[in-house]
Amino acid sequence: LAQGTQVPQSLASLRSAPLPQDEMTACEIKLFGRWSYEDVMVSDLSLQDYIAVNKAGANTFISHTAGRYQKKKFRKALCPIVERLCCSLMMHGRNNGKKLMAVRIVKQAFEIIHLLTDLNPIQVYVDAVQNGGPREDSTRVGSAGVVRRQAVDVSPLRRVNQAIYLLCTGARNSSFRNIKSISECLADEIMNAAKESSNSYAIKKKDEIERVAKANR
Predict the structure, then answer these.
(1) Neighbours of 113 (CB within 10 A)
(2) What is the pTM of this model?
(3) pLDDT class of 24 with cuts at 50, 70, 90
(4) Could you tell me the sign of the dihedral formed by the alpha carbons of 122, 188, 86, 99, in that order?
(5) Quick one: pLDDT at residue 21?
(6) Are strands 136-141 and 35-36 parallel, antiparallel or unpaired?
């Protein structure tokens, strides 16, 4: 419009008009632009503080925040739970530091989980983390050469750490020298752990650890 000309009534009303509903929902944060955090529930009370989903700063578009979560004790509990999975995938020397590769693997695994279960993959993954960590473990107790094992309870943070580690280890082992890709193996591992199926490496290990601990009570 030239300087000094009158703004038409229709244009003036457009400026003040509220956003349509679909544009307002566009600002909702979704993982990889697809998966909503809204309805994700952590059913285990003890793990609610340690599974960072639906918390301030835990909802991200992509699981790569470049946060300094190792600088202080317990700070990693604030790290978004999907990002912790990506970080845990970057292991065994040749994969160190390849976070974009890890993010791509997790993204593909989540797509596969959604196709096979028709559920929100974030919820399936949170269930897998809740089921995958051992609740009881055994530690070495004793001095002067006499060492015996004593059963102890496992803290919530260690349960989450152990579950994520076991999920990644199971996926890594099953995809090694196998025609199946790491994304497919990770998707299978997460789905089996969420169902508490004995086909899951994490569930097998958890049961074994708890069985040994029970014997050492």
Answers:
(1) 25
(2) 0.84
(3) very low
(4) negative
(5) 53
(6) unpaired
